[in-house]
Fold this sequence. Notes:
- By secondary structure, the chain is mainly α.
- The protein has two domains: 3-79; 87-339, no CATH class.
- 76% of the residues lie in helices and 0% in strands.
- The protein has 14 helices and no strands.
- It has helices at residues 3-24, 34-56, 61-79, 86-104, 106-129, 134-137, 153-162, 165-185, 192-214, 218-251, 258-274, 277-289, 297-317, 331-339.
- Helix 4 runs antiparallel to helix 14.
- The longest helix has 34 residues, at 218-251.
- The chain is elongated.
Amino acid sequence: MTPARFLKTRIDAWNRLEDIIGKTGKKGLKGLSDNELHELTRLYPAVAIDAGRAKMYNIDSVTRKRINQLAISAHGLLYRRKNVRYFRAIYEFFRNDYPELFRRLWPYLLLAIALFVIGFLGAYVSTTLEPSNAYLFVPGKLDVTDEDSGITSRDISERFRRMEKPPMAAGIMTNNISVAFRAFALGITAGIGTCLLVFYNAMMIGGIAAYFSNYGLTFEFWSFIAPHGVLEIFAILVSAAAGLRLGLSLAIPGHLNRAASLRTGAIEASLLVLGTIPMFVVAGIIEGFVTPSYLPGIVKIVLGISVAFVTISYLMFTGRRRFSESDIPSPQKISESLIL
Length: 340
């Protein structure tokens, strides 16, 4: 083929590609019709080859520059990295993806709840029958209602009230999130470490609850714990469910090989525990500002239960889409949308 014939046979393709690129404007590929998009995908590879052929045929520099620019522009349109809207991705995650993931992994949450209830009731009954057992479940000295020390449950509230609330709330959130991530991370022990952590914390809470109950301070105890504790404990159990998902994917890979099972389990578990962070933020704010306040105990209890109820309702009833289950994004797709 002669240079003249090359120019004659290819000039129409260059002109057409130039027209299509000119139509994209600020909208990019969205500014093209289906037929134009099809033409773009067909013309781009040929024009990319033309850039090399133009050099081979020693075509004039102006034409070569034009062909190169057309190839670069077309490549940029077709392979430009998607402009991810981070806030939109986060909104979609919590609006649709996280509730769906939560409902899909609910059996792991039930297992975590069962472990917690067993540990709590065991410690509660044991301490009720033998008050001195409280010292087995609760670290440190239990002097909240010691008659000799004169410390009462009201004194404990006063200690909280004297603290600076923003630093206290931040410290509480940090501590609770660290507990949650430990429950998740211990899942790598095939879930054994997660189970032990849940069981230990359940016995500690059960021992403290029984200790207060033995002194006739049941209402005072729950009015102090419930405002933040109901949501806080729920979030920790969700994190434990993430740890169990991770652990069981390692221990029981099913039809997948162990590496593939662990990879899938780790993605789902990571996203599940990630969604608990807003719960801990809310619980920390309540614990820092509401729990030590002078609000009536019944108001605090109702508040704690209401916040937990709203959270569970959101997880159970939002994110229900009008398409088949096969259209629900995979955990890999969810994670990629957050990472990009």
